[in-house]
Amino acid sequence: MTKKRSSDGRKPRADAQRNRERILEVAKRAFTRSGADTSLDDIARQAGVGPGTLYRHFPTREELLKAVYRNELENLATAEEKFAETRPPVEALRAWLLLFVDAIAAKQLIAPALNTLLGDPKKVFEASYAQMHQAIHRLVKRAVKSGDIRKDLDPTDLLRALVGVANVASSPDWQQSARRLVDILIAGSRPIK
User: Fold this and answer.
1) Domain residue limits at 131
2) Does residue 75 sit in the same domain as residue 29?
3) Which of 92, 123, 126, 163 is most buried when burial is the number of CB atoms within 10 A of its CB?
């Protein structure tokens, strides 16, 4: 996760960074549980900070929502590197795709709220698309090189399949379905013998 710099360009103090991270984690859970209209004062209280601390980091609800989503994507980008270093190629790909399902859930929560607040949140999401495509391409390339995945696999197809399940599913258990689909996609991506 990247550390946000203060307005004068300095890195934040360690306690300020911890507060920011706690606020983001609590906000993610609160928005997921109760929607984007969750009380910001309740979020501050659950994070163990005062409302002033929350508003110093996130002056508006819109800024907090954007930060929650961006934090999810930063975690996903960081995870790609960590998984590639610590897991066999196909397991790194699988683990990352499971995290991608969680990122889809965060976007589904945040996009309608940002639509209401901004009118068009495309700028918030556009930068993340490039990150996601780069990450999945690196993971698939590594799995192809190891022989775990077929050479003709288009990495974008994996993302499309998971996003498709999220967009088509009308039930609240779409995430469980998407998680099962990850294993089906991995199995179907194996080389044909």
Assistant:
1) 61-188
2) no
3) 92
